[in-house]
Amino acid sequence: MVTKWVRVLPVVLAGLSVGEILIRDSGPHTGPRSGLAAVLLLALATTLPLGFVLRAERVARGVAAVGLSAACVLALVSFRAPTAAGVVAQLTCVYVLGRGGWAGLGGVLVVPYVVTALASDHEVTRVVAVLVATLASAAAATGVTHHVRHTVLAHSATERAFADTLLEHAARGERARIARELHDVVAHHISMIAVQAETARLTTAGLPAEGATRFLAIGDTARTALTEMRRLLGVLREDANGTDTRVERRPQPGLGQLLELLDESRDAAGSRTRLIVSGPVGALDPGIEVTAYRIVQEALTNARRHAPGAAVDVELRYGIEELAVRVRDNGPGPASSDSPGHGLLGMRERAAMVGGTLHTGPAPGGGFLVEALLPVKSEALT
Length: 382
What we know:
Layout: H1 4-24, H2 36-45, H3 50-55, H4 58-79, H5 84-99, H6 103-119, H7 123-203, H8 209-241, H9 258-269, E1 273-278, H10 286-306, E2 312-318, E3 322-329, H11 343-353, E4 357-362, E5 368-375
Parallel strand pairs: 1-2
Antiparallel strand pairs: 2-3, 3-5, 4-5
């Protein structure tokens, strides 16, 4: 927004310049006042272009600045000194150029005054030229300083905004990771505490009434903690994803529930789904079992979405140090990975969280393959 003084300043300076010329010309004359009109026009030329310098577009601003400086130098050479208002207009002009990033042009406009000071044989002209050149250099330097300061502040604000954005993204990622860990492992253990306390209360023979009361209190406390944790998980996931994410309200599944998962997938997709297990089967870290289950679950969901009706093989290979999880469909292959969305990313994050790896892509011979290698013990929990 152009302020009021910016609009008025050139007019005020023009009026002052004309008034100064008229005062200079008000002395006694023996003849006609020849050339007064030309002097008045020159005085206006040293002030009115300032309006374009202050408000015009970039090219017009440069042209107006050159014209104003040329008129000031002409007035200095022709009449020994420009008007005071003209000098103010010249200083304002070079200051505005420096502040607007035209430091080079502002410096060029000072050069004619230096040349005039060196070439003129009139003492007053030389003194005025040196004075204007000095003041104009200072004004241009001040404008450049303000421009640099403004630029630095703008860059600093941009850098701060960028850093804040990175921090916010990192915080959201960390909150999502914490939510996954709490949801997949800690909530499961708390659920098991509640179940075991209830089971012990009902099945322990000869349990005193006080012991039964204690077990009941343990179960109630565990269920209360689980409720609060689920509420916290809802907040964390909503904040991390920007959506209201519902958390499951049951103990976390493991590899023992894979047959149920495959039955559900088979009923939903209407296609053949097999489970192939090899190696020495044994109980694994709960975090590993939850991760393997979720990877299979997401892979089956992707197969139903991208390769409907395709047969799916789910293979678990138990090793001494690794559990290999492979889910392969016999669908069109690459087409099933055209739109990976957040499913594949979520599987990779889950695998990485426990120290494993995940590979996805076209399977040899056709179809699509999801293969995860998970450590037998979760690195994230040890």
